[in-house]
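I am writing to request your help with a piece of structural work I have in hand. Thank you for your consideration; the sequence and its tokens are set out here:
=====
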Amino acid sequence: MTEPEAPEPHYHGHRQRLRERLLRSGPDSLQDYELLELLLFAAVPRKDVKPLAKSLLARFKGLWAIINAPVETLIQFGLSECAATTLSVAGAIALRANKKEIISGPFLNNWQKLVDYCRMAMAHEKIEQFRLVFLDRRNRVLLDEVHQHGTIDHTPVYPREVVKRALEIGAGALVLVHNHPSGDPTPSKDDVAMTKAIIEACRPLGIAVHDHIIVGREGVVSLKNLGLM
């Protein structure tokens, strides 16, 4: 006697409906947890991922925080290694694509894109990073790199090392960027003093410092716009 076929899991129809809605109406028609579900479908083929997507959003408070979280943190939350790496790769692709847009054009025309990129790259970091964006004499981006890693509230930065790196790359100008893991981007007295020290070290060599951007989860501030440099 032939055994009856097992019923198709209820989430199979749900997955197809989500895909159809995405194709028909675009990503703006989907809620955050539904976009996250779509990303998880390939990594978690035999499970209803809607509860998982909602739990991730409740824990990390946003899509970018999820896909920017360390793989180890996602695994500790309960994701498989496959699911965790899928989310991490999605974040890396988005960040790299954004970076390509910054490098492809003149700095002055891409200012907001640069700010958005820095926020994507640094707002959710758990320790301080000091990032340098190197520009040529025509204000085109040559390179963006993390110059120093620090602690939860301090990054040691030495002006002579900043100048040395700028000379190695042949930069004519810099944008300084660092993050505040506390979330509050308000500049400290040390931030202002460090900025002025770098400006003074760069001045004799004709290297301009266009701005110092501070990134936090609560926003982004520009020391130039605040009149602090």
